[in-house]
Design a protein that fits this description.
80% of the residues lie in helices and 1% in strands. The protein is an all-alpha fold.
């Protein structure tokens, strides 16, 4: 009995911490998302560029991911006794936005890769495929959560999914869901890393990674680090599956993930001098953002 009580206390503490961090992330991300999207969509030049369209999409998805994470974890922390199906739906929608965040990072990397390696074909390809690829992104993002939701519903039965459960379970409890999620992440990582490798090789071949454009190397390293802070904790969370035995590991991986994602607006957006300049012109109180460094690539195609 004591072991059960300890597990319950640990779970509530973890959910409370997660809910608090998600709320903080949501507030920070909301501020950056509103300011950056306002800057992009008010500027006729920035609005036409695919990379800024993808950046805004990334930030909106990230903000909604944090918002749903706040709701889900606070339901668990306060043990609001919600129906299992409601918990599954909230969690599934959060996972959908989380996958959309990752898929957008893939498109951002591919966009930069095409812009640098095939500049003559870039404009035609990027603008003709922009909305088609975005539609495909959402279909793929919906696939895993919907499949997991249906699978769990069939496995557990109607009586289970409509009952009230203060623990508010997720659809990550099955081995099928965890394996599916890890395979999905591995495929996306391969695409992103492959794009970085192609960019690096093209830079060396064309002489872009010389002293005059040393910032490009640093950009790839920073993006790689930020991606690691996104991917590794996510894989750890999927693998752990909410087991109380891994409380410390689960909490540590979540905090790393949370702090890493707070940097996303800066890493993928405000390190671009073009966007930062427009941002500072429209939001004079944010002039201090100039310290985040020069343009990532001289040709203007930052990730």
């Amino acid at each position: 009995m004591n072991t059960t009580d300890d597990d319950s206390s640990s779970s509530r503490l973890l959910d409370t911490v997660k809910g608090s961090f998600y709320l903080l992330d949501f507030l920070i991300s909301s501020i950056f998302t509103i300011l950056i999207t306002h800057t992009v969509w008010r500027d006729s030049v920035l609005k036409k560029e695919v990379r800024y369209f993808l950046l805004c999409h990334h930030l909106v998805c990230l903000t909604l991911f944090f918002g749903l994470g706040t709701i889900f974890n606070l339901i668990r922390a306060f043990q609001l006794n919600a129906p299992v199906l409601v918990c599954w739906i909230i969690f599934a929608v959060q996972i959908m936005f989380g996958k959309a965040v990752l898929l957008t990072l893939v498109l951002m990397a591919l966009n930069t890769c095409i812009a640098i390696c095939w500049p003559l074909k870039y404009l035609r390809l990027a603008h003709s495929l922009k909305f088609k690829l975005t539609a495909c992104l959402w279909i793929i993002a919906l696939l895993d959560p919907v499949v997991s939701l249906l699978y769990e519903s069939i496995q557990m039965g109607q009586q289970y999914i409509v009952k009230l459960d203060p623990t508010c379970p997720t659809t990550l409890s099955s081995t099928f869901s965890r394996i599916f999620g890890i395979i999905f992440i591995i495929i996306l990582v391969i695409l992103i890393v492959g794009s970085y490798i192609i960019i690096f090789r093209e830079g060396k071949r064309a002489g872009h990674f010389t002293k005059s454009n040393h910032q490009a190397k640093r950009t790839i390293l920073i993006h790689g680090l930020q991606l690691a802070l996104h991917i590794i904790p996510t894989v750890m969370t999927i693998w752990i599956g909410g087991k109380p035995d891994y409380f410390t590991l689960d909490l540590t991986s979540f905090i790393i993930f949370s702090l890493g994602q707070c940097l996303s607006p800066v890493v993928h957006g405000l390190r671009s001098s073009e966007l930062r300049q427009k941002f500072n012109e429209r939001h004079s109180c944010c002039g201090a953002l100039d310290r985040y460094g020069p343009e990532n690539f001289q040709n203007g195609h930052s990730m």
